[in-house]
Amino acid sequence: MEEKILKIKESLNDALSNVEKEADILNIKSEYIGKKSEIQQLLTSLKDMKVEDKRKYGSLINNSKKEMEELISNKLEELDSKSNISFDDSLDYDLEIGSLHPITIVAKEVTDILKRMGFTVVSGPEMESEYYNFEALNIPKDHPARDMQDTYYLDNGMLLRTQTSDNQIHAMENYGAPLRICAPGRTFRNEDLDANHENTFFQIEGMVIDKGVSIENLMYVMQSVLREVFKSEIKVRLRPGFFPFTEPSYEMDMSCLICGGKGCPTCKHSGYIELVGCGMVHPNVLKAGGIDSEEYTGFAFGIGLTRLAMMKYKINDIRVLNSGDIRYLEQFKVQ
Ligand code: FA5
Asked: Which of 167, 201, 207, 314 fits 124 for a cystine, CB–CB 3.0-4.6 Å?
């Protein structure tokens, strides 16, 4: 037992020594002292131990957990005293040399809009576990929905996240309810590439959990984001969708701005670009995040930031955004 706990503490020390961002520390916190952590499991196992083992190990496990909590909060304090760099502050609009990537500009714009509505910006890992990418999102193994997002599995048993929705679970675990977060980030799918499909693209996740949250609130947020990004009313189309983690689910398409909705190769001649997946958070997901689904409801959305950048800057082929062609990419300015 002593050795096991020592190993956990060493592993925590190692993990903390390699991170500098608050979100990473919070992820470590949930991994090492959260509900599913090894130390928590040891604590739970105490109740089934013999009386003499309980006496022997009870204070060791409890004190070790306290020590680990302290290590994590010291690291957070250390970071806080060093700087207050956030996603927002790290971007400098007054660059004289170089330029911002169009996706960076759009990501910053959307997070700014959401921040004004009271959302906190968080971020999660690109290398993710099946639990956070699928299982906790109500997508058990062998569920057909796993095939909707062709996944890159890694040799170490992890995967490259297929969606930013993993942040929903991390956020609920880290902050509980009520909650209002957004999480921009890179996502990966083993897709066939075409004018509007990449295998590496960006999304921004949003999640609101509170008492009495409704679909009207979700639609208001979506419309406000689009109106502010495009500085005009954008024609949208709402369709019923299917995501195991929301019920009901919707997909929102926007009128293709490359062809003005007439139909072109970018929108596959449909006049619309699929932009957002969204819906009311499924009770099983709230449960997985440790939130009482009788007391709270929530909505969540995932906006395709790469496609948003395409529409904003009238880029007719998504592949140029990952091309690294600086002469092409540097022409885009903050509008
Ligand atoms: C999702 O990824 C869900 N996680 C969205 C969600 C979040 C639903 C929260 C409910 C609640 P979907 O696979 O439809 O859903 O992707 C969301 C958006 O990401 C799409 O509308 C599109 O704008 C963008 N997207 C998806 N696949 C690609 C791709 N291969 N290339 C570029 N953008 C993509």
From this structure: 167
How far, in Å, is the centroid of ligand 1 from the Cα of 159?
Answer: 17
Rounded to whole angstroms, how far apart are CA atoms 74 and 323?
41
Burial status of residue 322 (CB atoms within 10 A of its CB: 0-12, 13-18, 19 or more): middle
With a 6 A CB cut-off, is 277 part of the ligand 1 pocket? yes
CB hemisphere CA count around 182 (13 angstroms) = 26
Cis peptide bond N-terminal to 184, omega within 30:
no
At a CB cut-off of 8 Å and minimum separation 6, what does 306 contact?
A: 103, 198, 201, 202, 318, 321
Report the C-alpha gap between 174 and 291 in whole angstroms.
Answer: 11
pLDDT for the residue 295: 96
Residue nearest to ligand 1 atom 10, measured at CA: 278
- pTM to 2 decimal places: 0.75
Q: What is the pLDDT of residues 88-147, one digit of tens each?
A: 445 555 555 678 899 999 999 999 999 999 999 999 999 999 999 999 999 988 887 787
The verdict on the CB of residue 163 being under 6 Å from ligand 1 is yes
Please report the atom of ligand 1 found closest to the CA of residue 249: 10
Q: Is 133 in the pocket of ligand 1 (CB under 6 A)?
A: no
Cα of 98 vs centre of ligand 1, distance in Å, is 30
Ligand 1 atom with least separation from CA of 303? 18
